TrEMBL record, chain A:
UniProt xrefs under InterPro entries: Ribosomal_bL20, Ribosomal_protein_bL20_C
Gene3D superfamilies named in the record: 6.10.160.10, Ribosomal protein L20
The protein's role, per its UniProt record: Binds directly to 23S ribosomal RNA and is necessary for the in vitro assembly process of the 50S ribosomal subunit. It is not involved in the protein synthesizing functions of that subunit.
Highest taxon, organism lineage: Eukaryota
CDD domains listed in its UniProt record: Ribosomal_L20
HAMAP family: Ribosomal_bL20
Protein name: 50S ribosomal protein L20
Organism placement in taxonomy: Eukaryota, Viridiplantae, Streptophyta, Embryophyta, Tracheophyta
From TrEMBL, chain B:
Pfam families membership: Ribosomal_L13 (PF00572)
Keyword Ribosomal protein assigned: yes
Lineage of source species: Eukaryota, Viridiplantae, Streptophyta, Embryophyta, Tracheophyta
Keywords: Ribonucleoprotein, Ribosomal protein
NCBIfam families: rplM_bact
Family: Belongs to the universal ribosomal protein uL13 family.
Presence of the UniProt keyword Protein transport in the record: no
Protein name: Large ribosomal subunit protein uL13c
Origin: domain of life: Eukaryota
């Protein structure tokens, strides 16, 4: 009774792991362990992929990811990284507006120091 | 008196289909027809002069045929309203990374610091500068490097940096310094640097084939119309002291 379930889960495995019960049982157990672990890892991987995409999108406008998120937090914009990455890919103009909002809220390290008095005229 | 055409009429929703996605967005950019305003004559335009959707009555906003309410139970969500782009992270389809439509970049390596140049090259080859970056798919561009024999390194690396290789047999390690290798095979220096910065694996090996290094200033890829690689590193230019 259990053998059929094991072989059903072992479809697509390499070599004897899909045909011979002793090997298939081991591999299926391992596969189930991996899938348990990876259901949690998938959430981490997705978030890091969104962050990489947002980073690339903002660097096109001269702002890096850290400064961009800091600016958004300052303005209390609560868009999550998933939506931000989709905006960066599918809605470039809206994303540029967001980058400008973030840049005004937090100019980052490229802030030109304001010259006061006589030096502002020079 | 010039007429002002409401610009909201031109801002169409982007196509949900992924094929040719990026081109679709740019095509549907709001187009301001300045020509009519320069006439100085009041024209009554009932419709915008540019029609962005061909037959409006038969399609909904996503460009799909309208399904009447009684038949909606027969179809899936993606067939009624188009694919869901906001709740599913985008993954590129085959049409999004066709090799023949990728950009080609060109870098002149003369007097550029080797590692800094290789780093930007590797970024562009991998596609990390694009918002559509996907780690499992080759979304990057092609890069041509010319004048590879003129690449520069700082400090004493020219005589002290060692390039090692091993033939596999005992006692088969061959060691060369930077300038010896530059005299022998100058392209290998840039290739070695970039290969170390690309991912190692099947995808990394195909990415490496997108790097083309040449000794002189001639390259056979004029037909690809390469554009100069935008380099933002300020310390990449070798300064002789």
């Amino acid at each position: 009774m259990n053998k059929d379930k094991i072989f059903k889960l072992a479809k697509g495995f390499r070599g004897r792991a899909k045909n011979c019960i002793r090997i298939a049982r081991e591999r299926v157990e391992k596969a189930l362990q991996y899938s348990y672990r990876d259901r949690r890892n998938k959430k981490r991987d997705m978030r890091s992929l969104w962050i990489e995409r947002i980073n690339a999108g903002t660097r096109l406008h001269g702002v890096n990811y850290g400064n961009f998120m800091h600016g958004l937090m300052k303005e209390n914009i609560q868009l999550n990284r998933k939506v931000l990455s989709e905006l960066a890919m599918h809605e470039p103009y809206s994303f540029k507006a967001l980058v400008n909002v973030s840049r005004t809220a937090f100019p980052g390290n490229n802030a030109v120091p304001k010259k006061e008095g006589l030096s502002s005229i020079l | 008196m010039a007429t002002t055409i409401p610009t909201s009429a031109f801002i169409a929703t982007p196509l949900r289909c992924s094929t040719g996605r990026s081109s679709a967005i740019w095509v549907q950019k709001a187009q301001f027809s300045a020509s009519s305003s320069s006439l100085g004559v009041s024209l009554s335009l009932k419709r915008p002069s540019l029609r962005l959707v061909s037959v409006r009555c038969e399609t909904n906003g996503a460009g799909m045929p309208v399904i009447p309410a009684e038949e909606r139970w027969m179809y899936e969500e993606s067939e009624i309203n188009g694919p869901d782009i906001w709740n599913k992270t985008w993954y590129p389809k085959a049409a999004d990374h066709v090799n023949t439509e990728k950009t080609w970049y060109i870098v002149d390596a003369s007097d550029k610091i080797l590692g800094r140049m290789a780093s930007t090259i590797a970024n562009y080859i991998r596609g990390k500068n694009l918002a559509t970056y996907t780690p499992s798919v080759d979304m990057g561009a092609y890069v041509i490097v010319i004048n590879a024999e003129k690449v520069a390194v700082s400090g004493q690396k020219r005589s002290q940096k060692l390039y090692r290789r091993h033939s596999g047999r005992p006692g088969g390690m061959k060691i060369e310094t930077f300038d010896q290798l530059q005299k022998r095979i100058p392209e290998r220096i840039v290739e070695h640097a970039v290969r170390g910065m690309l991912p190692k694996g099947r995808l990394g090996r195909t990415l490496f084939t997108h790097l083309k290094v040449y000794k002189g200033s001639e390259h056979p890829h004029q037909a690809q119309k390469p554009i100069p690689l935008p380099i933002r590193d300020k310390r990449i230019q070798f300064v002789k002291k």
